[in-house]
Specification:
homotetramer; alpha+beta; seven-stranded antiparallel β-sheet; six-stranded antiparallel β-sheet; 26 strands; globular
């Protein structure tokens, strides 16, 4: 799959890839809270490029800034940071999973409660979000966004508990699904991870002040120390005391279940330099390439990565197979805005806007093309064609993850099941023919499990969330069981603001 | 007072004037609903130039557009109107009474209820708005704006009645103060005026379709027919039937009290060509000038209006006194944006950015300067000085309304009481000295009542709302009696979005 | 004609009016040079609302800012003024006479000469501009704008004289037509008026520093003293000396001819509070109304001005006739941007976007409608209809200037001759029928001359430029005699920048 | 040096790199001329990200669009392309070498000549540009930009030849330095390369229509065929005939000299997939890494590239040395606008905004760090520190080009000589200490020559332009010999437009 080695041009040209919804970052007790949050979000930019927001509190008042576009387009300039004073801040960067990209959906969301203001930021998706929303509206709630996250805010506002952290716990006990969530009040920074631990969330420390963020790369950018992963089902409540010291309380409000981190964090989402679940992502991806070379060897002249996502696996494949690694595809990082909806005459030039073949290393060669994953296959089709046009004598496609059969409901934006390549073809041979390669192979599920965790998948107690490959969803899917028609009611108001 | 004859440059240079908060317009059943609403709002632009919004419904979906600035800067271009399809629309133009001019405060406000969407637009102010807001938040409501109007929306959302119009009536029975309010649902257009009828609201008709708007000038611009004033305490519910016909229901949910329209609509706010409470505003203002000439005659050479607000009264004064009416002050209508906060070196040039003396008709003359009202007196001071600098031998200030002593709580943005000219000086002579005139006279309260309604004020049953002159508030002031401190909690979140 | 009493909303809805091209302002030796220039241009905004530019010099470097839109939309805010440091500045505000409204056409224009930089700003039009441009291009000049003014810049650059003022004089001796021009160099401020004195130009003084500007109202706004009119054919060269003192040299490089100021400055363009050619414009316009009442009396109930242009003449008409003056038409000053090209459904509402009838003073009345001039008649048609719709029993149109038959080539944007009302009808009766009035009368040319200068027109030596009424052009028209086809070559490059 | 493998984030965080000024593209006779030009410029975006412009001609008129920012931010959307109709187009993308980034400097530049319009676009720099400009101004030319290119336009305008192509040749014979230039007239597309061939320029063909562009990657993106390099000193004139056919004329107006292409095109500027001077750039860079491994071997555990510029050389180094290639530095491509001038608190985080260490592959390892070049050394210093902080036991810096001692005057923006690392230290050891590495080595000049052309440098007849390494400038430097003071005169006018 295209694009994940530490970055992605601001806009994608096609939708033949998966998208994570969000990255979160929060810090308590630091005088540069908003600046550090902006930098942390910048490091998490690969988790969502559509919009970013920050809320801060300075002991007097809450402040918020929300902007469409990159963190580095708006935040961290003195004028914007001057509008976000204070020593507590949380931030959020997002990719829209729906067509609606309005500012009102940009997180963090804020509410003024009787007990004071609260802001929340959330990565993930609730499997009972629509069901809860219907109940809230029936009970007189006014929803201003179409975001799942607002449901939590209403549950907090309506909770009968007194303290804001009790209300927060009360609220998250009612939601199901995958989430890593941050909340801030006038004195507290709260972090919570869903009972199964689908989405990642880590704790760090800078100058003795606690930080929570989606990935360790957001700690590295500011020179913060990694403390530990937040455990599945855990709620960590940090509170600044009148004397400036910070107390930390850890609770597990729900019944314990084994952790099952989302495999796609390893396959595609996380930054290669992040450590997720104790494992360096780059090394895991190289392992995938090594295992792929073992499972699906091929007699060839060069190993060419589909940049940037396929690069680590290609390095692994090359090292294992002894075939030279070469940059046979060059990526143009300057994509810009107007290429989003190119005119017909430009669309005809297709994938070349972002990639071009490096003919000199391809011409007359037998090429092993390594990518991290295949979703619809429409991009693979074009890439293979491009390699052939550049004169390759053979093109062998090697994919460093299994075939994708099932949609996700925990925060990954997947196409409908019948659009997936694996569901459109009866067998591997048909897929291979569709994308135009001489051979095609996917890493096995066991090969993937071994690359990540060291051992094969245990079907009775799988170590990871892997339903897109296996169909084994780790939770029930309440909204999916209800009537689809309710979905439509939620977007009755079209707006640009 | 500066500026009211049918228009005002987009931004005011000083705050020595009163501001109305809003104008409203709504229409049901017309294929050009949004276009007609935009035109109606354009005619009501003098009631608020800060921002404007329109909501429409096309049988499928609600649409909304909200923009800072003039109606004519954004609406009525094909691209914007294309985003507002449908046959029902309500619109709102506003002047911000607080420092916060965020888009989220721009009306109409919208909520998705269990029974379907509802939008409301509101001119006026609630005297128990903060009290209600506190109760709602304690009860778990999340307020997204700092606008009074949102309170009504929450009351509607939480009402236990089934139909949207019953819920609307249920809600407005809980608010106190001055308001003219429009609401729209998927089938209804609802108009309501407060029990005392402080703010104006009229009903009209175009092609057989009902229209509600703040002033008759919004009917005139689209060639619509004036039907009648909405009565104080009246709720009018128009509903489009499945066959396209429109039913109208009129109810008076609250105990009847006599109407008391706000006198300042006549003195300053309403457009001179509007008919308010059955009276042409221009003619009323001319009467004020006639009565002023009778009450406070002066031996002089020319009558000069302070444009544009003082012009009708000056015409009346000139006709009654026989002294020639001359344009001794020229107004520059091209004020633009950057003059809002002029640099110190520019501020020194003061009022001349907007006005200049027409020396030829002033030099060596005894001038009667006629203005509609005086608030702080800071502008009058500069105008009198400008006339003197232009060579007037005498300057006699005549004000076509009484002295202002008391703040308003029904939708007019007044300065704090101790900033008012009348409260800063012990007598008329001191005021006259402050503004630098040779003589100063205000129209008496009876003179004003006679100019408007034909007879003197009856202290036991005053015909109009006149507390700014008399201290006689027409309702209780619940929020004012409560703790001021609560006010601060409502703006805990600073935002630009 | 619509719109001239001291102001005009930013954009016009129709083109049934004449447009002046420009206003100019310059000051030498003052530490607030750019600020004062911005204020002066603000006062001259009625001479052109499309764009404005300022050039300043601070002893080291020239600076320039050019912006589309109103002076008050961009200039005079601290950030913009900070980019215009120095003690010499000239500025220009313009109305585009062509469809092309690009920034590159905004004046002042600047060139770096061998002898140092020079900037020029210009009000008027050359009658040999195209002819000169053709010669320059043939001689290797590169023209960057489509503006007439650039021709002068090239003539200066190519002049063989050494000093910049000698080069300037050399250049203007080659151009023909009507112009008031300012130039600035590193030490000089130069003002020049064409040999016939068609366009106005005055000299003033602030704190002992010389100012040149189009009208006296630009002196008044900054409290500067009026010194004198620049005479026709005069070049005034002010130079700042090393000791800071300012020398002034006056020359008349061309053969003397009698001055003939453009009558339309009195009829429509100049601000009513300006003194043009020694005459207060407001008083002159009142005189036109007085003479009109004498020439074309009518038995009626009210005199109603077409605001704002017709107001002074209406006051004069009312005073002379004894018929009461009333504001029967209310003007909406908040026109905004999107009404420029209204959609068809809005266009149908026509002139009402800007004006509305004040029914109460019109209904059942015999109305004398007074306007300053009629160009095409399309607006008059709508205004008369609007007055009739408001219930007038009779409508008598009185125009305070003669019929317009001929186009202008000296800086006034006139429609083609066959679009003019006077050329479309064989007699007054036919015109009256077209606009729908009960009677129609124009002020005679002698009546106009008497209103302005006190005596009737001397056909042998007319005191003013009046060709639009009489066909008597004050200069030869070289470009008109050449081939029209050359005009097209000049706009070969379409650009938005 | 940071950033060159096929792309660069829109804005650089520091100036420790060299910048190319421009890329050019032109096509004649194709119905999609402007679209193809936009795509070609997109592929050349690495040669300049500041601004881009396109001029087209449709048989009637010339059209131009110029925009600050990326090609993909503005061009290729239907609205912009619709403003560029026609079958001839040339385009230009630029990096500003001066602080002035005004639109008026954006190319192509256009002039309306007596013989019709001409537009030119130019990559490179003239060594006698200022000298010519002084002569032109003395001769009455008005320069509107501060761009070198305008000089050529004036020389064309003033040429006494009749045809536009003769005028073009006449003009370029007067300029000295390095340039690849395109010109278009109403019928012709002209390409010219300087006599030494410093800057690259190639010819291609699409659907039988001629294309000229800076690099072959601009042909690849549109599927065009590569024809040949334009030779040094060659002028190619393509003309569309009345019957639609295209004639081609090739001339060499100047005395032949051997070609000396700029080595930095191979080291850093050109895209790795381009073929420059018949050599694939990626392969040349890999050769540099191979030669570097031979010249400066080191006992180490991993080879880590400084991305993206150092990647091909690192692959070569790894293959030659047998040390594994690993992605030890991750680059963040989402840099955005506000990081350009980061606040002090952010600046402290330094290079990490763009790069981060991938700790897992570095910790405890002996690292060979491979970069393409070192300019000031300030970035290398930070990168080495970052690698050490990530736990490397040793850091060996290897640079795939020689030390830089001398500034460039042919279109590369180099810092002043005394800012260059090589000039700030007396020997390699001192440099090594400064950047904090355990060892430091540069590729020798002969090693570089061999990597590019196969054989060592012949000091008597060097095959390439290499003065930055050797001081051997390929032309005289006329402007440098003149007075520096003249430079200042050229920016006397500060402007934002």
């Amino acid at each position: 799959m295209i694009d994940s080695l530490g970055g992605e041009a601001p806009f994608s040209l096609d939708d033949d890839s998966l998208h994570e919804e969000c990255g979160v970052f929060g810090i308590l007790g630091h005088p540069d809270a908003a600046t550090l949050t902006a930098l942390g979000l910048h490091a998490l930019q690969h988790r969502g490029q559509e919009a970013a927001g920050i809320v801060s509190y300075d002991g007097q008042q809450f402040y918020t800034e929300k902007r469409m576009g990159l963190v580095g387009d708006h935040y961290t300039d003195p004028a914007t940071l001057a509008k976000l004073p204070g020593y507590i801040a949380i931030g959020h960067t997002r990719y829209s999973t729906t067509g609606e990209v309005a500012l009102r959906n940009v997180q963090p969301l804020f509410a003024e409660l009787e007990v004071g203001g609260i802001a929340i930021a959330h990565n993930g998706n609730f499997t009972n979000g629509l069901t809860l929303r219907r109940q809230l509206i029936a009970d007189g709630a006014i929803c201003q966004s179409t975001s799942d996250t607002e449901v939590v805010l209403h549950l907090i506002a309506r909770s009968r508990f007194t303290s804001s952290s009790d209300r927060f716990v009360d609220a998250i006990k009612q939601v199901e699904g995958g989430y890593s969530m941050l909340a801030m009040t006038r004195t507290k920074l709260i972090a919570a991870r869903d009972p199964i631990g689908i989405r990642p969330l880590v704790m760090g420390e800078l100058d003795g002040k606690p930080i929570f963020c989606s990935e360790t790369c957001a700690l590295d950018i500011i020179g913060a120390k990694f403390i530990r992963d937040i455990e599945n089902g855990e709620v960590v409540i940090c509170e600044i005391q009148p004397d400036g010291s910070i107390s930390t309380e850890v609770i597990k409000p729900q019944n314990p279940t084994p952790e099952r981190l989302c495999l796609f964090e390893y396959v595609y989402f996380a930054r290669p330099d992040s450590v997720v679940g104790g494992r360096n992502v780059y090394s895991v991806r190289k392992n995938m390439g090594i295992n792929l070379a073992k499972e699906a060897p091929v007699d060839a002249d060069v190993v060419v990565p589909v940049p940037d996502g396929g690069t680590p696996a290609a390095i692994g494949y090359a090292q294992e197979s002894g075939i030279p690694f070469e940059l046979g595809i060059i990526r143009n990082h300057y994509v810009g805005r107007t290429f989003i909806e190119p005119t017909q005459s430009i669309r005809a030039f297709g994938v070349k806007l972002k990639h071009s073949a490096n003919r000199a290393v391809i011409q007359g060669k037998r090429v092993v093309l390594v990518d991290d994953s295949i979703v619809r296959g429409t991009t693979s089709l074009k890439i293979v064609q491009m390699i052939r046009d550049a004169g390759a004598s053979e093109v062998h496609m090697r994919v460093a993850s299994p075939m994708i059969y099932h949609p996700d409901f925990y925060g990954i934006d997947t196409p409908e099941a019948d659009k997936l390549l694996a569901n459109q073809h009866k067998d591997l041979e048909s897929m291979c023919r569709y994308i135009g390669a001489d051979s095609l192979a996917f890493l096995s599920i066991d090969g993937l499990y071994r690359a990540v965790g060291g051992k094969a998948r245990d079907p009775k107690a799988p170590e990871f969330t892997d339903h897109y490959f296996t169909g084994d969803y780790p939770t029930r899917l309440l909204d999916q069981e209800g009537q689809k028609s309710n979905v439509h009611n939620l977007s009755l108001l079209a707006s640009n603001g």
